[in-house]
Design brief:
heterodimer, A: five-stranded parallel β-sheet, two-stranded antiparallel sheet, 7 strands, 19% strand, elongated, B: Ubiquitin-like (UB roll), Alpha-Beta Plaits, 2 domains, five-stranded mixed β-sheet, three-stranded antiparallel β-sheet, globular
Chain lengths: 181, 235
């Protein structure tokens, strides 16, 4: 039997949670001994190569592409984890959730103080994924098995949770490792 | 001399004086009953129900229910903990609680309850309500996104400051804290030294210019759960 596989992605996030994963410092060498990375920005594999044990999701869903990626992760991963506040509650991108979409677009592309857009076009190329009406937490789109809050979750939180899962132990995080900021 | 008597919390005998609430007597005895809207020295109004206990088999808010001789109070039971956790989760989804940029993070009692109850994500859907800010006052601002309607500011301003700057308006999900003036906070006689400035359990009523003063790691709830100070009294 090969090593268990881990996949990661950043949806509507800032890659801060991925940076936090890299913050496990030299333990990353232990992690590489423990797992193989499948689809992930860390190894730049774009598509799943097969079944994956643990999927780490950073960021919530702000457009249809995010939803497709998240559904793809759910399909391929045995265990799916929402990592960070954006995946869990939408995070900063969700600040637009009580502003009508039209107003957001107008501010971003037409009326904002630093906007230069003489043609007054709001980007509408077919290649661009459609923006959702709101930013959705991941667990409101697919079933999520675990949540690791934080902005970002500390490296130790990610390490402890991953090691526990991969060695079939319950995740028991000390008080200091569960924080919302 | 006020009369002393005894009742039990989870089978443990607790002494109380006439007029004390269950929560006050428990706190003195070093037993932590989780609470949010209650604050020592303010008149409790039992709005948040986080301190729900069972008294002789009936649900009561511990902060307003008087202690009485011989009553049997349940506090630390799986049933009550589940109910309290639900209430806290509902408070999180009902407002817009962005801990990552809130000045109160680390010192926030709602957040601390989330930590104490081990809430990683609420099971309910986020409502993302539209709430109003008021930054008109030069030294103070109100961010109603974070308000949990505890009523502490209302009580403190009315009963301690004698100003009645704050009041509730609206009903149900539309209920909100308003300022008692025709326009904005800057039109009231609130001042930075008022009691009502120091009672907000969350980051709703904020002093301008002092945010993020305490480094992460030195804030109230960075290292130990809310209620630890009370539990230490037990000795």
């Amino acid at each position: 039997m090969g090593k268990p596989k881990v996949a990661t992605t950043s949806l509507a996030g800032c890659f801060g949670c991925h940076m936090s994963l890299l913050d496990i410092d030299d333990r990353i060498l232990d992690l590489v001994e423990l797992v193989d990375f499948d689809k992930s920005p860390i190894d730049d594999i774009k598509n799943f190569t097969g079944r994956v044990t643990v999927g780490l999701i950073e960021g919530g869903c702000c457009n249809e592409h995010n939803v497709h990626v998240l559904q793809d992760f759910r399909k391929h991963c045995d265990i799916l984890i929402s990592v960070g506040d954006c995946a869990i509650m939408g995070g900063l991108p969700a600040m637009r959730n009580n502003i009508p979409l039209k107003e957001c677009f107008d501010e971003a592309y037409l009326t904002g103080p630093t906007v230069y857009n003489p043609d007054g076009i709001i980007p509408n190329d077919k290649a661009l994924p459609l923006i959702l009406d709101k930013v959705y937490p991941c667990h409101e789109v697919v079933k999520i098995d675990y949540h690791l809050p934080g902005c970002p979750p500390p490296a130790d939180t990610l390490w402890e949770a991953l090691v526990a899962l991969l060695s079939d132990k319950p995740i028991e995080l000390p008080y200091e490792l569960i924080k919302y900021d | 001399m006020s009369e002393k008597f005894v009742f039990t919390i989870d089978g443990v005998e607790v002494k109380a004086t006439q007029g004390q609430s269950i929560l006050e007597a428990a706190t003195e005895a070093g037993i932590y009953i989780p609470s949010l809207c209650y604050m020592k020295d303010l008149i409790p109004h039992g709005s948040c129900r986080v301190c729900t206990v069972k008294v002789d088999g009936r649900f009561q808010a511990g902060c307003v229910q008087p202690a009485a001789p011989g009553i049997k109070v349940e506090n630390d039971t799986p049933e009550l903990m589940e109910i309290r956790k639900d209430i806290i989760e509902m408070l999180f989804v009902e407002g817009n609680h962005y801990c990552m940029f809130c000045e109160k993070s680390g010192d926030c009692e709602l957040q601390a309850l989330g930590y104490r109850f081990g809430i990683a994500a609420p099971k309910h859907k986020y409502l993302f309500p539209d709430r109003k800010l008021d930054a008109t006052h030069p030294e103070i601002f109100i961010d109603r996104n974070r308000c949990v309607l505890c009523g502490r500011c209302v009580n403190a301003s009315r009963d301690v400051d004698g100003k009645t700057v704050f009041e509730f308006v609206g009903r149900g999900i539309d209920k909100t804290v308003a300022v008692n003036s025709d326009a904005n906070l800057s039109d009231t006689d609130i001042s930075i030294g008022d009691k009502s400035m120091d009672v907000c359990p969350v980051g709703c009523i904020i002093k301008k210019g002092v945010g993020f003063k305490t480094p992460i790691g030195q804030r109230t709830y960075d290292h130990e759960p809310i209620g630890s100070d009370i539990e230490r009294r037990k000795g």
